[in-house]
Amino acid sequence: MKELVTIQVGNYANFVGSHFWNFQDELLGLASDPNADLVFKNQDLNMDVLYRSGETHQGIPTYTPRLVSINLRGSLGSMSSHGTLYKESAPTPSDILTWTGGVSTQAYTPHNKNLFLQRLYEEENLSTVNENTGSNNGSHSECQDKDIIESLENDVQFWTDYSKVHYHPRSLYELSGVWTDVDEFDNYGNGTNSFSWSSQGEEISDSLRFFVEECDHIQGFQFLVDDSGGFSAVAAEFLENIADEYKSTPVLLYTVRGPGPRASPQSRKRTILGDLHDAVSFSRLSSYCKLIVPVGLPSLSKSKASKFLRIEDEKHYHSSAVYAAALHSISLPFRMLPVGPTTDACSVSGAVDVHGVIQMLSGQGRQNIVTVLDVAMPAHALNGGPNQLSLLENLQPLTPQVVEDVEDMQAIEYMTVHGALAPGGHHASVSEVKDKVDAASLRANTRPLFRHLSVARAPLPIPLPFPSIFGNHVGQHGEFIGSEMTNSSSKGSIDVYSIPMAARLRSSNAVLPLLESKLQKLHRFGIERGAVGAEILRSWGFGKEELEEMEEMLSKMVSTLCPPHFSSDSD
């Protein structure tokens, strides 16, 4: 088995991660549910790739994500940093005094569980009682699903507010000295000033080591970072440590951020500060990974990716669900069971590990490490009619500043389709999906140099705490039922049980505008003579040589993707 360790750094990264783990928990539940759709019964997925087995001090078996999550102090809401499986012991006060200066105290009132978490707690307690007594009583909660959904839509403040997953005590880490109500943790410099690897890094490293050392054969790290502010600096320190300690273990890095501007209105100084942060953050983070995937549109609600969705950009609860769904699709092949040549009898095809994907996208040809993430949510059925868009045509970018319909003869694609619906409404077989994708590729105006296709029959399950973001023309299983009605309410988990998905990582020169923008802003505001942001970068701890190295690195990324220019002059 090739295990995968997931790392989530920053608030928005944990919003995405919370949805991601809810999908995994839902798949586990459906696989053992006698009343569930048969497509979930034999998924041909090895969930041990993402999860670890253990037991509590009382000998109770546990199955928890192989995860290290880092966030600000006070960011866990009603959840303890020890998780929910283990009893938390009170900290022992120290008699040793090492500080003689003034002391300020920051404290917060513990948050109460919302309706969803109350229901979860009641059901788990009832399950324990039934196991101990041998009874089979149902839940007596007066809290209805619609009340829970309404509560979540209006009141989600923390990523734990909608998490249905148990976490190991070594998984959750809160940065000491930095609290969630501190608004100034919004750029790389603040992250550098607030976090010291020498004082807190060893504890984080120990947590990661705990999960890595129990792996038989780790395939890589799935790393999510909220790169919109100070967490970029925290993640860069963490990634540097990983690069030193686990040299041969690849890192697949997702930089994620929610929609909207950092601050409004934006002054010129704040705009320059943000531009410098973006350039420095991207350069630093990309230097410690094998593949980087920028994720996060300025307005997801107005994008083509939300054609069949109703997103409220101001709600992280909404946008993070879309990004998590795409990441779930991308990660499916990492835990597919190997199958033989008779794919019709199987539920999956195209298994590959993290190393294989990284080699595929960045280790060949021009060796571009920056890839585009595309998604079709929900994916269209395989009708194949003359006016029906194909799976390929429905894929839309979740990566910002990407050129549409670009022709790139050296493009490489890694694509996953799962839960696709056949014309009769049933879930299509693996071979049906592969045939349709091949046919669509032959009809396409542009084709990649190479495409790897992975297919799974199991669709994306929609758990109860998933936000109500589906248009009213999306049916119970993600099929399209007529046209959109503008004045009707959106749908959630009560109305939609599962959806077909398609997601793709694409190594393409379509990402050039993103890279050129970062390079130009770093040079203009931070490096050229008299640059207005030079003092800002010095205050962040960057000297001239480091900035020139960043500029050189970004220049190489751009030149890697630029087509060659041939001079008309003869030598």
From TrEMBL:
Ranges where the Misato Segment II tubulin-like domain occurs: 2-121
Places the protein is found: Mitochondrion
Domain of life: Eukaryota
Listed GO CC annotations: mitochondrion
GO annotation, biological process: mitochondrion organization
Keywords linked to the UniProt accession: Mitochondrion
Pfam family, one: Tubulin_3
DML1/Misato tubulin domain boundaries: 154-335
Family, similarity comment: Belongs to the misato family.
Official protein name in the record: Putative tubulin/FtsZ, GTPase domain, misato Segment II tubulin-like domain-containing protein
Source organism of this protein record: Lupinus albus
